[in-house]
Amino acid sequence: EFRSEKLPSNHGSGSYEDGIAPPSVKKQKTVTVSTIDAYEESHGHIDSDIFAQLTRDIRLIEESGKTRQEAAKMFSDGLLRKVRHFFQLAKMEQGVYDLLDTVASKCRSMTTPEKIELGRRIRKLPETALDHMVEVVKMRRPEILVSDKVSFSLGRLDDTTLWRLYYYVETALKAKQDRTVTPP
């Protein structure tokens, strides 16, 4: 076991191993003792192969420590960029939803035949599109509880929500149709 200790005052210089003397002591000479020298002093001579291996191991540890720090910094910087990007996208998404609400609120009232047609078209949606449709309704009517089975009356929804649903259903059905059409 090796411990760093103050050199005895009879050592000649009156300095300390780390080269820093207390303020009350004048610094005359710096004494540096390497770990290998200290080990040899207390345990005897070290074989040159062992010394070379120890030196390589120490260098690898120092290098890998620096590499890990750099990798951690790069990872955290990349993660921070992604988080910033996510928040920017979330802000943009909210802006789009607000714009859609504004546009939909300016639309005329949906007629009963249009509501019936909307209901028919909703039944044609793929399951994944139904999930998003429920989210559209839930944004406008947070009191609706979402479970495995969701039902609501189109007649009870406000016109803004109905028109948002209408345009979403149109887009989803067009995307579904585009996926089913195969190129010649």
Automatic annotation (TrEMBL):
Pfam families: BET (PF17035). Residues 1-27 are annotated as: Disordered. Residues 100-180 form the NET domain. Keywords: Transcription, Transcription regulation. Gene3D superfamilies: 1.20.1270.220. This is NET domain-containing protein. It comes from Aegilops tauschii subsp. strangulata (Goatgrass).
